[in-house]
Amino acid sequence: MKYIYFLIIFIFTLQIYSTVHAYQHPLAILWEIQNGQVIYYLKREEVLAITETSVSTIIETIGKDAFGGIYADIKMNKLTVNIKDPSLENSLLLDKYRDCLLFNIVNRSLDELKVQFVVTIRDAKRFGMSDHYIYIDIEVNDVITRPNLPPGPNTQPFGPRKHVPIRPRQVNPKVLGGAGIFNRNMKHKGIVIRKTCSIGFYAHGKNSRPENNPPSYIITTRSCYIKDSNLSNYLYIRNWGANSSQVKDLKGIGIRNTDDPSDSELFITDARPATIIGGHICHSGFGTHVTCGNIKALTAIYLNEDGSSSKGLIITDMNTRYEDIGGTVFFYKLPELRYVDLFGILVILGSNLAAALPSNIILENTDLVLYKL
Fold first, then answer.
1. What gap in Å lies between CA 270 and CA 309, rounded to an integer?
2. Which domain holds residue 78?
3. Fewer CB within 10 Å, N- or C-terminus of the chain?
4. Higher pLDDT residue, 351 or 194?
5. Which of 58, 78, 105 is the last residue of a domain?
């Protein structure tokens, strides 16, 4: 019996070892690199972002009317500068940055694209267009109008998850960003009346004091709410892989990341905007868990089905599922990958395209403050 006992332990140890080493970081999947290279590539992205700001300032100074914007390729460690006037490439002011610069001759300046963006929105609204993205695509030097194609039921993240680590049962499971929310019809007990969406982040009142135990607010998308007078909106929270909605520990600074055997929780230390096209952006949601993509556009609007429009959005190429809507959108930061900066929440999703709303717009309109470390 002793030998059987040790054999089981040995097999179990091998299973744990295999599970841990099968995990691939979302940024490693995005950039097609090894886990150990993620920090190096994040540093590269950080340097490119600083360089992009400097180069943009120079080009706008010497030839604003001919500047078509900049986009980054993190894997290639390059910035592509769109210009209408080829002579701008020869400016001596750019000499210190040339190792990471490529130049692309385009037909439209950034200012012209912004005018085209406004005109396109006006025309789309006049013709009653709905369920469409409209955004400035710097890479193709054009304004894109694209219908929202819903994600298929089999949509996978970049590189499907190879495992789900088994963790001990928690007495008071935490409710974190990215956890699931679902509705139940209380007139018919136990019936779920819509698909799950996800928690974005926590906020509190501007004048609230911690010692007074102020109320916390869970921020998510309006898609979680059902406009039906015959139904009551009872929202239940469910963690990844859980069969029960019995969660009690409301912690306002964490993001669920339980696919990672090392860092099951990510901590929000601050919030910041998206600044560089081609830079990484990630989300945590009930459907695809934590996945990452690239920032495709910093200027975007969505025309809703009811005739309204959602402004101030950014466009990403993150793969998503319906259950991810409302989930946390964030950036990894240096030097430790367990600490992140919040961007906002996932508000619109489709096939290989998703829109996120910045947290500053949400907080300004609700007069709330972000919970953070």
1. 28
2. 38-105
3. N
4. 351
5. 105
Amino acid at position 304, single letter: N
- CA-closest candidate to residue 352, choices 296, 276, 275, 311: 296
Q: Do 33 and 43 meet the contact criterion of CB atoms below 8 Å apart?
A: no
Q: Is 363 helix (H, G, I), strand (E, B) or coil?
A: helix
Q: Is 107 exposed, middle or buried (0-12, 13-18, 19+ CB in 10 A)?
A: exposed
Residue in 175, 197, 237, 174 with CA at minimum distance from that of residue 326? 197
| pLDDT tens string 280-294 | 999 998 888 899 999
pLDDT in tens, 91-126: 999 999 999 999 999 999 999 999 999 999 999 999
52 and 178 in one domain? no
Kindly report the pTM of this predicted structure.
0.83
Contacts of 301 (CB under 8 A, 6+ apart): 121, 133, 134, 135, 309, 310, 311, 313
The residue type at 267: F
Supply 372's token pair: 């953070």
Tokens of 17: 């070892």
* CA atoms lying within 13 Å on the CB side of residue 63: 20
Q: Are 154 and 10 in contact (CB under 8 A)?
A: no
| Bridge partners for 303 per DSSP | 132, 309
pLDDT at 181: 76
Burial degree of 333 (CB within 10 A; 0-12, 13-18, 19+):
middle
Question: pLDDT digit string (tens) for 228-270?
Answer: 655 555 555 544 444 444 444 444 578 988 888 888 899 999 9
Note if the bond before 261 is cis, omega within 30 degrees. no
CATH of the domain at 264: 2.40.10.10
Within this chain, do residues 312 and 229 fall inside the same structural domain, yes or no? Answer: yes
* Entry field: residues in the chain: 373
